[in-house]
Amino acid sequence: MPPPDLTCSSDVNNRLVERGIDLVYGGGSIGLMGLVSHAVHAGGRHVIGIIPRSLMPREVTGDPVGEVRAVSGMHERKAEMARFADAFIALPGGYGTLEELLEVITWAQLGIHKKPMWLLINFTLMATNYCKDFNQRSYQHHFEGMRSAFPT
After folding, report:
1. How many domains does the structure of the chain reveal?
2. What average pLDDT does range 57-69 have in this prediction?
3. Cα distance between residue 140 and residue 134, in whole Å
4. Would you say residue 150 has pLDDT above 80?
């Protein structure tokens, strides 16, 4: 039985192709969105990947999928993705996924967009994984050290 994240991404790409929906995504060829982009493109749909130039060496492997637009940075990437997208789907991911998700939710709350959003995420599992990673990377040490940076 495939892991839930892979099943989720497989369901997403199948439904996009079945319904004739094109894909706008962050442009990488790795991870869940890499799998989705390859499958949607193989299913005959148009794929637009929008990626900061600085991330291309790390997130793009092999031949690009569909149309790749290189942009100057993360802010431009998110703005371009939002401009081209008719809706937003969030799959499980890392800190970048969380940041992009919160920005899209904030934009909806502020009335900047009224596009549909689907969150295909187990928030409890995601939060648990973030906490584990946070502790493993010793970020906590840096925050505890803030007391000495700002003495009372």
Report:
1. 1
2. 87
3. 7
4. no
- Has residue 130 been placed in a domain? no
Phi, psi of 103 (to 5 degrees): -65, -45
pLDDT at 3: 59
> Residue 65 falls within a domain, yes or no?
yes
The domain that holds 19 is classified in CATH as 3.40.50.450
Residue 80 pLDDT > 90: yes
Q: Which residues of 5-20 are buried (b: 16+ CB within 10 A; e: fewer)?
A: beebbeebbeebbeee
User: Per the domain annotation, does 102 fall within a domain?
Assistant: yes
Residue 89's pLDDT is: 92
- What beta strand segments (E) does 2-152 contain? 23-25, 47-52, 67-71, 88-90, 117-119
Are 47 and 22 in contact by the 8 Å Cβ rule? The answer is yes
d(CA 57, CA 92): 22
The model's pTM is 0.80
Domain that holds residue 29: 4-121
In a domain, 146, yes or no: no
